[in-house]
Amino acid sequence: MKAAGAPTQRPADARLLVVDADGRLRHAARAELADHLRPGDLLVANDAATIPASLGGVHERSGAVLEIRLAGRRSLAVDDVRRFTAVVFGAGDHHTRTENRPSPPDLRAGDTLMLGPLEATVLRLLGHSRLVELRFAGTPDAIWDGIARHGRPIQYAHVDRSLALWDVWTRAAALPVAFEPPSAGFVLDWRLLETLRARGVGFATLTHAAGISSTGDPMLDAQLPFDEPYYLPETTVQAIARARGRGGDVIALGTTVTRALEHAARRGPRLRPGAGVATQRIGAFTALRVVDRIVTGVHEAGSSHYQLLRAFASDAVLERMSVVLEQSAYRWHEFGDSVLLARQGRSKEARHGSGPKKATTDSPGASPARSALARLRSSAPARDPSAARGSAGRLARRQLDPR
Amino acid sequence: MTTIPALSWDGLRVAVTGGTSGLGLALVETLSARGAAVAFVARRRQRVIDVAQRHPGAHGIAGDVSRKDETYPIAMRITAALGGLDVLINNASHLGPVPLALLGDTECEDLEAALATNLVGPFRLTKALLGALAASAREGRPALVINIISDAAVTPYAGWGAYGASKAALLHLSRIWDEELQAHGIRVQGIDPGDMDTPLHALAVPDADRTSLKLPADAAREIVGFIEAQAVERKPSGESRRRTDPTPG
Q: Residue A173, CB half-sphere, CA atoms under 13 Å: how many?
């Protein structure tokens, strides 16, 4: 694999590795994603627009230059924009890999940060010297104005050029609540929506505040994903019920969609529409209740993303997938190629039977593939997605980051 | 929440460009008075602040729709302030050369400036907000783009070359986009508000008899009526909607 360094959302030669419910793999052109969806299926996207969440500024008490990356918020309410969780870096920018960035100045509760037109107060440290809760001064309109004028999209060293918002907003981007783009949605364009409609494939959305994918700090990365607020429209709940009624699959466009849908279904088979905060971790032992297939990017960052895929497929399948991605030179990262991964080992009857559905997993410790992967992962703390660009150790460092 | 809230102005989310003078200001006033959630965009920050102060609840956004790098920040401010978007009114307009010039005397830069504000700007902003409008449509709400055009978009008035050509292009853009988006529940309409007593008209025809010109507030009321008519048209069967304003005459 190689890093996708050009911020093109839909490269003409983008590829799609299709992994079916029996673990069979085949190569496809991503532009033909719709060919892999059947009438009655439902594609669900995250329609969050991405805010320019990287804010450069100065720590007033020390005079030190720093960068904060907004990373979390309590709700999606339009006026709830005073308090954010943020990751703080020392001087520098995205051209330096996050794990090589200097530490921020010593931060204390009550410190003032001058961030261009914005002023923020550190309310408290959140168990780590680089993770803080901030409160911005001013009205919600003034805070949004400051973020709009001063902020830059969060980005990583594998993309050299400075990103603009148009690089990171998907075609479905609506409410600006994501801190990094829900990049599985880059595949969307209006032509695809037309094709889906013509084929009788449904399209629905939810809004999920996609968080950051890497902090450069292993301890913090281990906490990812942070809690993420979302909103699930009633119309999407109805569309899922219709798809189910027709025997169709629910295909999540990205991990954030999966996390939100599964959170909304955590209390039983009936999805709860409305606002929620996704707090759960999805992993090998998670029984997926809603999502049958996932479209996801090919990345090496963020073990949480890899963990999520383990709810869909056994480690043996995921490892075979990784080997094929590697051998076939798929491009990773947010502007790279994609995977369409089906939940493994389910007969059609089991999928549409009653009760919550179980994801099939290998029993822990029993699989040689699992222990091989465990070894690989132990040598691969989550890191800046750019870190593994060199050829040496690429396989060892590769992870799958669906965003 | 249930499916479609019957159209009530309370909660309808509307954005207006060029919102601090002429028709745009009248739209901000009329829509605010109806109870719509309004965001407006204009270039001059101080005027934005002044208008916002006079209309508590309306969200003022300083920005220039003719500038590419301001498009997305403006779009973000709109959806952030309103929590989404149901109606976008691309009203900001550029006259072209002042005083009006015959095309043979029109500087290329003046034509480009008219196109930037009257055609490319609305295209960019609409495109950036299309996701929000589509989200509105998926939830069964009205999703509508109104592009303010002019009879100069249809009639070839001598001296109005830059303005007329740019508005003609905007009208055709509206028609094509409407064709493409109807199936997705989004309508795009060009509306000619008529000759109004506005700063732009005064620039174009300084010696006009102002008493013969339409008041911007009257044109704004007609556009508000049009929005209601569109929303009523979208009404699903069996659901009652409240209409609070007559359709334009």
A: 33
